[in-house]
Structures are given as C-alpha cells and as structure tokens.
Amino acid sequence: MAKEPTTPLAPLLLWDAVHFLNVGETITLEEDSPLECYLEREYFRDSLQCLGKTKNSWVFKKTKALPAESSTDIDSWTFGIPVGPEDATILNAVVKRILELDIPNKEILLCGKPGSNFAYFDKVRIVGEDITAPPVQICKKKNRLAQEAKYDNLCILHDRVFLPKHFGEMVRRFGGRYPLMTLQSLFFDNRLNLHPRRYSDYAFAENELAMGIKGLRRDSDVAASIAPSTFTEVGLTGFSFANAMRYNKDCSYPTGSMYICNRSLWLQYPLDESLYWVEYEDIEHGIRCSMAGIPSRVNPYGINQSITSRALLGSHSPNETANGGNVKKGPALFSCLPKKPLLKISTETAISKVQQFAAKYVQPDVNLHIPTGLKKVSPSQWLALTDSVIQKTSFKNDLSSVRQFITDFERLILMDQLPDTTKEWMIIALLNDPLTAKQNFILSLGEILNMTQQRPLQSWFYTNLDDYFHCENRTYFGTVISALQLYFQKDKIFYFESLLDAIRAIHNSTPFSSYIRPAK
Amino acid sequence: MKLFIVTRELTVNVDYTVDPYIARLVNQLDAIQIHSPGNLNPVIMVDDRYSLPTDSSQSTSINAFKFSDFFFQSSDTLNSISIDTNRIYKSISKVDQQGSYIVIDCGLYHISHIEDLVDKLASTCFQFPVLTSNHLVFVVPLAIQSQIARRINAVFNNLPATNYKSSSNKVKMLLISATLKKVHLLLPTVSSVIVKAGVLFRLLLSRLVRVRG
Questions:
Q1: Domain limits, chain B
Q2: Which end of chain A is least crowded, N or C, by CB within 10 Å?
Q3: Nearest CB to A449: which of B127, B172, B178?
C-alpha cells in the first residue's frame, strides 16, 4: 500500500514498487485528495489491471511484466555513440574507457563513420552510415543505435562523455529495473581538476514549454509545444539544472549527452526523428516519457566527465539545490590557471574558416588581409580580425540571404550555434537598420562577450587535442579539493554518498592523458 | 533582383505607366549586360539610353505603377503623404510571373517621400523573398537620381561599412565590459565579506567597550 501525494518522489517510488511486484500480486494506492493516479498512465496500462477504484484509492493487479523488466542480465551492456567524421582523438579515449569497464559482456556501437585516426575499428560495430548530414539527425542516429543494440541494457552517450571506471559496479548496485537514467556530469576547465563545474546532465523546465504556444510539427498535422516555429519560444521557457536528490514530475529530463535506458523501453518511446540537433529533442523526449509514466532519474553512485565543452554553455545558469531552492553557478571566471581550449578547433582551421567566410561574402575588390600561418591568435586579435571581416561583407538584404549569412557566421566565425532568440534579434536588427546591425554584429553580441569573459587573454583554439586531457599525477590535489568543495557546499548541487565517494567518483571519471594512446 | 534607376526625360512628357513607352524602356533595360557578383542585388543607374537597342519584339512581363498607387492622403492633413506598406505588398504581390519588371514612376514627388517608398519596398521584399525574383525600375528626375540610387543600394543590399575604422578600440571596450561584468558577478561575494567583516568589527567594538566599562 502506498500513499502517493506525501512526497514529490512518488513517481520514482511507484516505479520501483510496480517493477519489483510479482505478476499476479496487487498494489493498493491511497491518496489524501482525489488526484490523477500515476499508475493509470500509458506505460503501465498493458501490465496493470485496475481491480477497484474509489474517489481517492486504487487497487491494481500486475497481469504481466513491464517493458523495463525485459532485461535480466545486468552484466550485458550495449554502448552506443553517435559520431561524425572529425578527428577521433577524443572518441579514442571514450572508447578506450568503455573497453576497460568492469562489465563482462559489452558491445560498442558507433552510428556514423568516425575520423580516419579512430583506433578501434576492430572493437566496434558501425551502423547508420546511410544517415545523412547536415542537418545532424541526432534523434535518428540514437534511435538506430537502440534498434541495432544486441543487449537490453543500453547506454547512449555523446563522443565527449568520459564514463567512470566503476560504471559496472554502479549499475549493478542500482539494479536492472531503471527508468530513463543518466549520471551527474562534471567539467573541469583546467587540467588540474580544480574549479569543478556541472555540465549538461539532468535538467528541468522551469515554466510551461514555449509558454503554451504550439507550432506545427515537421512530419504531421499535429500542433506541438516543440516545433520549428516555436524554437524561439521554447528557448525562452527557462531551463535549470535539476538536483539529483529531487524529482520534478513531468518537467525533468536527462539532457541528450547521456542516456541509460532499457532497449525495449527506448524502442517503445524513441526520440522524435522530426527534430534535429539542438532542437530541444532531449526535452521533448524526457517530458513525453514522463507524461507516459517513465520518470527520469540519476544513478547517484558515480559521475561522468565531459572532455570538451560548448563555449556558449559556459555562462552562469540556474541550479536546483537539494532543498528545492535555486542558485546560479557558472565557470570560475577569476581562475588564473591555464585553461582548456574554449573551442574544439585548431588555430589553422579557424583561420581557414574565416578565409572561407570572406571568400563567400567579401567582394574581391575590397581591401582585406587575413593572415595565414599563425601559430597562436590572442582573443583580441581574433575579435579584431573577425570584426573587420564582418564589416567588409556584403549580401542581399532579404530574409533568406540574411538567414544564410547568420548560419555561415555560426559555422565559420562563431564555431557554435546561437540561441534561436539571438538569431531572431539579429534578423530584426538587419531588417530595421542593416548597417548599424552589422557594426554591432560581433562586438555587441552577448555570446561573444561571454566567450571573452571565459578567456580574456588565453587563445580560444587548441594547438593539440591533447590539451583536453589531464596528467594523472597533477590531478590528485585538485581532485581532493574539488571533492571537498562539492561535498561540503551549502547548496548541494551534486550528490555524493560520502567524501570518499566524491573523491573516488571524480578520480574515476577524469580523462587522463594515458587514454590518448590506443590500447594494445 | 535587378534594380534600375532611370531618369525621367526632361524634354518629352512621357507617361511611364502607358504602353508603348514602357515596353520600349523595359526591353532596353532587359538588354543591359550586367556582370555582377551573385551576393548583391545589382543597382544600375540609367541616364541616356541611346546606346541601347530598341528591339520591341521581345516580350517581357511588365507591371507599371504610379507613385500615387502606394500612398494615402488623409483628409485632415492634405499636405502629408503617407506610404502604406500594405498597399505596396498588395500591389506587387499580384505580380505572379517570375522575372517580371515592376516599373514605378516616382513623378516629381519630394525626395523624402520617394526614399520612404524605397525603404518600405525594401522592407516588403525582405519579408517576402519570393518578390526578389522580379526586377524593379524606378523612374526619377535626373537631379535626385544619385541620391535615390544610393538609398536603394543601402536598403536592398547589406554593404561593406565605408567609414569603418580599426576595431581595436571596440575590442578594448569589449574586454573592459567583460571585466566589468565579471566584477559585477563578484560583487555579492565581496559585499558578503564586507558585511561579515562589519559584523565582526561591531562585535569586537562592543566587547572592547564592555571590557573598558
């Protein structure tokens, strides 16, 4: 018997209760007030039969096993990674870590063809090479990984997510009947494991999606909250990092960086393939699953680390505290330590991209000099160069040309994707006053200001992809300091069982430079 | 989208909304060879047309408008002319054949009114890129041809900044504003330290006073 409204964690408890219930047994629920019963949701409908119902009590009988119970072997896992054709140094490290995990049966699937320097072609299975890009069809790729997976336990992760060494121990301890699950994620901006920062793991929508505005989906006649025409509104919804110790019913979702999910459950509730990369596809999926009765939660026995980070995510953003409050956290802007590169791109490639942009938009008779062969470019040099290029561009002043210009600006100058709200603001500015809008294009852009704040002096580009990996001997001190900081912090942004667990979790998930070298 | 600025002939009184003058004009304009880069709408000033062929056998789709088709004159303010964007859209959206020539006879209206029309026409074309498959011909007096051409070029195209100076000052400003923003983020921490120090100081002072007392 369970009393549902006594705790916001009720969906998680009910999930556990019905998944550990034997077929034929009954569960009785009593509510203090007449509310909708969580177990009446779509996911439970085929397996739970309602035997009796009053205004505020329900009796359910389990008639057959639920989809998430299909896996009986917690020691067999499929790891799926959607990949692109770029340099595979970081992917090599991610795969090397998966290969050494304490899991007896594992399969690694890559969706897409990795870069030519990928070192483990003999250890992985490549699927979905027929999926075209651009646009990056990330949902189709992740769904294909689930379809092709050999084992029921599925872990879908991005090619920058470094799993903890004790992943096997963590999942065995949690058990096999998990819903949509993820791990807390950490990012260190330096290679000494100091100044820890939470990075894209588990979040929730602070308001109603798109403030209730609906748009038409790409593939059907259904009006939905997340549709191409509502992306700007969805961006204004407000999203916050969720706390691992709390659950926000029908608002929480694991970000697309990492999913731990049962294969049959995923196939029943796949990602929406009509949405592409950075089109809020993770939010749509998490909330749709939650509405259907599949909550999202965090495996608290370890964390993962992100090897790289998106520059535009380096701003101060809201975090939910353990007591339900809200606190803004962001990168350590006053840190004097040498930092990791801001953009995952080399100086030479960055310069060649600017040249590509200039070739398209700057007339040949305009006097513009773009230096070549530079080994290092300081942020001020980079800003002056890109601003001078932008000021000397010319293009037709109509909506389609302006949209193309902004897309090329993102791809070749900013090297990241702008929020839809910023793009909308840019288009309106270019419509109202083309010249002034262009004068302000780079140096008044909030995203550029944010990048400058993060790296005012140090170059934004890498000289070598090794710059992202940590030297093991130099991290011990930082690991302990960071663990102390995270474990004893007042807001409890991260959950760890004990200080020792915090130290172990950070150490076990740190991408050490030994992972750059392929395993023999 | 080609943009022509044609001068009104001073010696002959020609109504550019009536055939066959207009057909002859458009055929002549259509014959002009333009070698222009693809990322700009070419703006062409046409003053005399003696060098252009006058073959009128070629058929070109033409839509002619008078300046007065686009404005309304309110009864209370007889001297004020207001260009109506909706009227512009309503008129030129009827041109359904791609590659049509839209000829607008600007008459002898004041330059500010003509510029207003140009701006609103550009704004309409910005929002409905399908309209840019047509060509625009503005018939204007010779005296203001250059000024109108400049305006058309500035609103239908996004041009390189001409008065552009080195951006080093602007970059310095950006770096300063980034630092200021950081300081702003630091303020709550600094103020909490100052408040705590103040509390401690008052506590010590009160102790001292009590001990002395």
A1: 3-156, 171-213
A2: C
A3: B178
